[in-house]
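Structure ticket #2291
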Amino acid sequence: MDRGNLKFKFNHHLTAKACSHLSIVALITSGIVLSTLTYADDESDVMAIVYEYGNLENDLEAQANLMRSDRIHIANGMRQTNEAKNRATQVATRKAEEAVNGGKTEFVTTIESPIVSIHGDVAIASFTQWWNIYPHEGAPTTSTPAWVSLVLINDGNNWLVKHTHQSPLRGN
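Resolution: structure written out below.
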């Protein structure tokens, strides 16, 4: 084997090895960048659901579509583990209240200081929420502010609420 051919093989081996190392570095770097972008997208998706959850207080059927069928709802000192029954109860209660008030009640939901953390396919959102309530025939009221925590699970396509916990906001 002549020196020129040996030099070519040696340089080719080094070049292939360097390219291999560069490829690994590029792959790792793109993985880090893409995972950061994925979490940023997930966080904005979850934040959008937090606000949609509040905005749909006027349409409980549509709001219920944000929930998983196995959702657990804790509020007013009660825990509801049957999401279908919870949905039916909330809708029936709202309709009964509106019948007493002579028409549709409007809810304007305020959500303040939401914090979202993502852990793979699980997201946790925490925020303060209250409603300005405008009955069809009645005086407007404001609800007591509440702490709300939502646990959401990404099924691969959508973030859906798995767990809701509401408790009254109290001073220290």
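Closing remark: The chain has three helices and seven strands.
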